[in-house]
Amino acid sequence: MKVILAGSTGFIGREVLEQCLQNSSIIALSRRDLPSSVASNSKLKVVILEDFLSYPESLLQDIKGAEACIWALGKARMPDNATARKVSIDYTLAAAKAFGQDSAPENRKAKKFRFVYLSGSGAERDQTKTLWFMQDYRRIRGQVENDLLAYAQEHQDTFETCIMRPGMVLSKETNIRSLIVGLGPSVRMDVLAAAMLDIALNGSEHRIMENATINQIRS
């Protein structure tokens, strides 16, 4: 199975890439070439994408045959809200629609295209709710979730999405039992990456997956 990955150079994306290469062929969308130590892997195809808002036909041909996407692009801290909205909302929806369009019945068989989106436990889908911390970030993440779920609802025959809501993401060397009790919901990045890959390959009955479920999916 061929999987698309966005965000392959990030903290979590690097782990997703490493695990993907052990299980399936992968197409990494990137603004720049990946290190030769990774790019030389025969299972990896790097597609240089300068504008994450535009998916020309030539690029869609490069990713033809992909059946799922793991979207791990973005970070909690952005220079300003305009940039945060562009990266978090506009980039994500542009990709979902481009891949969804390529998944139309005339282009695909019965299988739906799966879009696995990395959100966060603080995301707030209710855009009118009063929030006491990280208001903009949480509302933006919530809006992405709303838009993805709405798109999936409108294209039920060809597109499905699963939204991952991890708590604090820890390095894979961390022993969770050694952490202070009460630190809050958390998941090791290797467990999170494995869960996202599992859903990309096999699907899930969950449309939104909270931290507790993420920790259970690979247990």
**How widely separated are the two ends?**
23 Å
Poorly predicted regions are none
- Structural class, by secondary structure, is alpha/beta
Run of helices and strands: EHEHEHEHEHEEEHEH
Which whole number gives the mean pLDDT? 86
Query: How large is the radius of gyration?
Result: 17 Å
- Helix content bin: 25-40%
Sequence of strands across the biggest β-sheet: 3-2-1-4-5-6-9
Count of beta strands = 9
Overview of the structural elements:
- The chain is of the alpha/beta class.
- The chain contains 7 helices and 9 strands; from the N terminus they run βαβαβαβαβαβββαβα.
- The protein has helices at residues 11-23, 36-39, 57-62, 81-102, 135-154, 189-202, 211-217, and strands spanning 2-6, 25-30, 44-48, 68-71, 113-118, 159-165, 168-170, 186-188, 208-210.
- A 7-stranded parallel β-sheet has the order 3-2-1-4-5-6-9, with helices on both faces.
- The protein is globular, with a radius of gyration of 17 Å.
Characteristics:
219 residues; alpha/beta; globular; seven-stranded parallel sheet; two-stranded parallel sheet; 39% helix
